[in-house]
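Re: that chain you flagged

S.,

Sorry for the slow reply, it's been a week of failed gels. I finally had a moment to sit down with the sequence you sent. For the record, here it is as I used it:
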Amino acid sequence: MSQKSTRQLDFRGRAHWSYFAYYLHRVSGLLLACFLPLHFFLLSRSLKGEAELASYLKLTDFPIFKFGEWALVTLLALHLIGGARLLVIEFGVWKGLRKAWIQMAVLGSLVCGGLFLILSR
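Prediction finished late last night. Pasting the structure tokens below so you have them in one place:
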């Protein structure tokens, strides 16, 4: 009789700050990737002429698009800071977990998003 090796799922690691930082970096990258087709579509409208592009740019006056712009800037900042954190870890400069660095990455991305809201008026 063959014995199957069963592995229990251990969710303790998912409560760790590093997993939270990994998750934020992964999700922000996926959401940014979802934005790219929309961006390329809008750029393709500019090739058809100024009037065609202007008709699509009128949509950006709606509040949902203003929120989307803020979310895009915040996600870009979060992904940039999270990626820099990963590079520092990969090259061995940073040993161990530093919760303050993860918190600063999240705070820094929110500050970038807030500055975008203030300066875009």
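What I noticed first: The first helix runs from residue 17 to 46.

Talk soon,
D.
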